[in-house]
Amino acid sequence: MIGAQCIWRIEKVNPIEQQIAAIEEAVHRGRTTEIGTLKKVSAKYGVHKGTLKRWMEKVKNVPRSEWETVLQPLYKGCKPTEFSPEAWGYFLEQYERSDPRSVTTAYEAYKTMAMARGWPLCSQRTIRRKLVRENLLLPRHRLADFDV
């Protein structure tokens, strides 16, 4: 039965386990190159048939015991760098001091000080996002509202 219960069950499963189950079912059904087989299995597991084909290609000629490793995503994401209160205070000081206010000028001063003091170094883009979040800088698309 492919219904709400089945979908709910799949969502509770580890994504890698879901991938392995989908691959095993497709292989068990046979004729994995047939579009009909891939469509049925991909519909059951809520993935596109192209995705299922990519998973199957990844594990082709790989021992079953290594599938979990092969199916792990390569992208791990990155942990956002956090400002220490001291570093953020220093950056804001430089930002407010520059005339006209310039993120680039303040960032260069912050970067020099961060290297000297061993602070974690954030990218300029991260700093811009933080300034926007804290309403200290308007996003560029909003500047037009004020005829700047």
Features:
single chain, 148 residues, mainly alpha, 2 domains, disordered N terminus, disordered C terminus
Largest sheet geometry:
none
End-to-end separation? 61 Å
The value of Rg in angstroms is 25 Å
> In total, how many beta strands?
0
Q: List SSEs in N-to-C order.
A: HHHHHHHHH
| SSE class | mainly alpha
Q: What number of domains? A: 2
Any idea what the shape is?
Answer: elongated
Beta strand %: under 5%
Summed up, the helix count is 9
Plain-language structure description:
There is one protein chain. The chain is mostly helical and 148 residues long. The chain has helices at residues 4-12, 15-29, 35-45, 49-59, 67-71, 85-97, 103-117, 124-133, 140-143. The termini are far apart.
Sum this structure up briefly:
The chain has helices at 4-12, 15-29, 35-45, 49-59, 67-71, 85-97, 103-117, 124-133, 140-143.
